[in-house]
Amino acid sequence: MSESSLGKGDSLHQQVLASFPLCDITEDDMTQNPQFCKLLATLAQHVDQTGLTVPLNTELDKAEQKLQSQRRQWLRSESLSKGLQEMTQEHCIKKHHTTVPPDQNMFYETMEKCLLVSQCIRQLDPSSTTNQDQPSLLGLSTQQVMELMPPEKNIQRMKQGLPGELEKHLRRKCLSLLSYYQPEWENESEGLKAIKLSHLSAQLDKEKKRAESLTETCRENTVLLQRQTHLYLSELIKCIQILQSLILDHRLRIQTDLDRKKLEYFEGKLELVLQKIKVEMVEIQLDTYTVDSISAHRKIRGKLDTELKACQVEKQSVELKLASFKILGKEFETLAEEYCRLRQEIEMKHWALKEFTQYSNK
């Protein structure tokens, strides 16, 4: 393989790895599978790093923008609703600690009633797609709930003063957020706080982007670390295999001498044990068979041999008689069985007569 083709292959490998950072692929995998590497290189022209095609990614961006727009609208209305609820809660707490002017009390009571009515209406008709044939909640209708609204005069007065009160409330919340974000700015003047508050959104957005950049860098470092870990483990496994082969070769070289020495040791030990066993057997025989015991054993053996010969002669004679009886046939066997039966009956009668005589004497 020439240097130019090698450099081209390495460049192609790097391009594929950069195009698919989320895939656990190494250069060795692509070197061993060149067709798969070409397939990935061709596929990289049609998809991005996340695996999405260009048209699908465009549609996804449009859907994401639409979702973000709707999310901003929802957050705007939800933030406004939460802010109004917080204002009513703060007023309720304030009433229990200080004396509130009647007009301010009327303002917050009107706003609270309007919020409650709007929440009830939202519960009765949560969406425009609600089926009109469905039974209403608690049998109430929107018109019945609207009758609970405060007088129109109070509502108009509340609407006139609402922007100012809401602006004050949001300003206090922003200043508290500023104090939480930078506690050292809490003792600054109101003008300086207002200036810093105007730059807070940009600063938070800058830090958010920095956090996202750090997250992306962390993800790339994680992928790189996984790749390096895989390479490290592969090299470590190769080193372990080489070390195992070296240990095995060294062990095989010295194993022959070690086995031979062990064999010689065990052979010598076995020979020593056999000699000890022989010595013990000789000592046992010497202790057991003395001169007197040997002569007595000889006499006993002679007597036993004589009795054995006599028994053998008797056995031969009995076998001859038995053979002569067998010549007589089955009739003799019947007579012999009848003779045995009569002998048993005679013995039983003798036993019964003896028992009866002993009982009569008593």
UniProtKB/TrEMBL annotation:
Source domain of life: Eukaryota
One matching Pfam family: HAUS4
GO molecular function term, any single one: microtubule minus-end binding
Gene Ontology CC entries for this record: HAUS complex
Gene Ontology annotations of biological process type: centrosome cycle; spindle assembly
InterPro entries: HAUS4 (IPR029327), HAUS4_met (IPR026214)
Protein name per Swiss-Prot or TrEMBL: HAUS augmin-like complex, subunit 4
Species assigned in the record: Labrus bergylta (ballan wrasse)
